[in-house]
Amino acid sequence: MPEDTAELEARLEEQDAFEPPESFVEQANVSDESIYEEFEQNWPQCWEQAADLLDWDAEYDTVLDDSNPPFYEWFTGGELNASANCLDRHLDERGDEAAIEWVGEPVDEENRTYTYEELHREVNEFAAALRDMGVGEDDVVTMYMPMIPELPVAMLACARIGAPHSVVFAGFSADALATRMNAADSQFLVTCDGYYRRGDPLDHLSKANEGLGGVEHDVEATVVVERLREGDDHGHDLADGQHAYADLVADHEGEEVEPVSRDAEDMLFLMYTSGTTGKPKGVKHTTGGYLAWTAWTSQAVLDVKPDDTYFCSADIGWITGHSYIVYGPLALGTTSMMYEGTPDHPDRDRLWEIVDEYDATQLYTAPTAIRAFMKWGTEYPERHDLSSLRLLGTVGEPINPRAWKWYYKHIGNEDCPIVDTWWQTETGGMMVTTLPGVKTMKPGSAGPPLPGVDARVVDTEGNEVAAGDAGYLTVNKPWPGMLRTLYKNDERFIDEYWAEYSDTESDDMDDWVYFPEDGAKIDDNGYITVLGRVDDVLNVSGHRLGTMEIESAIVGVEGVAEAAVVGGSHEVTGEAVYAYVITEEGYDEDEEMRERIVEGVDSAIGPIARPEEVIFTPELPKTRSGKIMRRLLEDIANDEELGDTSTLRNPDVVSDIQQKVSGD
Ligand code: PRX
Predict the structure, then answer these.
(1) Which of 51, 238, 461, 481 has its Cβ near the most Cβ atoms within 10 Å?
(2) What's the predicted TM-score (pTM) here?
(3) What is the DSSP string of 442-469?
(4) Has residue 309 been placed in a domain?
(5) Are residues 654 and 540 located together in one domain of the fold?
(6) How confident is the model at residue 233 (pLDDT cuts 50, 70, 90)?
(7) Domain region containing 367
(8) For ligand 1, which residues put their CB under 6 angstroms from it?
């Protein structure tokens, strides 16, 4: 007799540990627990297992060179090409199989399938075009593109010729594009005319052009993919030095470009991410270590096999898309899905329709999306057959047990393991999560560190905390996928990630500890629950935003004297931006001002950073030394009991602000 729904809900509610389904274990890429022990005994040689997933032009001599910490080098002496690893080597056996299944947002449009053969051809043609335009080895090419297939084509074309890419999320503003191009001294841009959002075409080229206006050096060439073109009507006039993507590819039809052998430690790409200061950090990833890491984790954690149709709903403009839509899955020769649009267009079942239509085997998404699905209700997934799914994953922020269980039951039909994967732009790939064919799952807890990963939870002195106590997450040994430095800024690299817990004078690896700036706790079984950032970085819908970046956008608005930004908890997005603003004399604290502030943030960063609340206040709570007490502002945003106010210079301001927030 099947359980009735109420019984089932009650049982799920109480259950705090879930075993991997037998049907999954039987076929899992990794199903033997001994891997943990084996990797520990054999560290760092264990990582040969990851390197073995790749084809090398020249074999490496050493797995890890730790002679100059924290500037570790992996697979030294080895040479390889990432594009050849993601494409060429699959041609013989899988040339006719789909590499990318792309689904555009408009429902009446034809979707596109790129077989490995087709993707290889277009990557070669575009690589030839880039070379022709003067892109040389080590030139940084910026991409400012949405979820269209030409984005992975451009990334792989760059990888083919040894030009690092720097992808800027399409939702970022023109200013954000300019800042990143300036920081990377990037002289080439690949962008597009526009794309679709909730059914409407959205102009993107104007924003790109505006960004180009802010670039301080000469830009050699811009390539524009005409996603919105109708027939031969370009819709946009391209300026001098701007090339239509389709023309370039046609001009180089059938050309092949020999993949450049890159040193394992050569830069594959840069990715700018938010940090504590207003200036984004250029995280540098390398060819050998990064590719080995993403391939190995795709295989071990996402259980990717060549015959899968694997679906990650992230945007390629963020690290998740780089690692787990493009590099990891394609290195393994599987079919990777890409969806252009939002999950609620034309209706709230769009993702489920895609899973059903393509028989997707894995779904990797963010807790914020799961919370939205939960809010929308079960009728949407119930419209579709989701039985093709074998594994579910989440990434980007902590997932609350209720959302985990909803995902497990209503999407996975209690038949798919869930991997809650903790990692960062800087780690290149997953670090803490369960191996799905091996480990018990505990909703809300990411799991133990992966085999070979030495992650711990420590106190301020660096000593491991007792089970159940809160502390800070650290990684005490290097790993192949790690960032190598911040672009052109070794000093900031050490300051940001290592200084806290390392003896920075030492050249012994054991004295160096990586600090991801996350709070965490650990249980008796070594399962880590990540509690969130401990620096001034917010996590809105799984997207990383620096409070300083948002504050400087707000103080850039005419009439704003001072601003403080903190995160308030939000049912769907996890955190929401709360902005406390002091206006200058003579400016009204009215709706118009509020709108100008939101617009200011939009144009400096992008809509994702828009404040949910703008609270005008005559003063900000400050310590006697003049430091803003953000903790109090956070307590107010979250409607929590206030922490200690005794060190405040101006304690009265707190109750004033509280009244304003509750009165809003
Ligand atoms: O705070 C952690 C949170 O996201 C941060 C990294 O953000 P970003 O570099 O943008 O990369 C996101 C995609 C990997 C982390 O420092 N985070 C990421 N995954 C989890 C998480 N917090 C809790 N649980 C996770 N699974």
Answers:
(1) 481
(2) 0.93
(3) -TT--BSBPTT--EEEE-TTSPBPPTT-
(4) yes
(5) yes
(6) very low
(7) 16-86+287-437
(8) 273, 319-320, 395-398, 420-425, 446, 516, 518, 530, 532-533, 539, 544
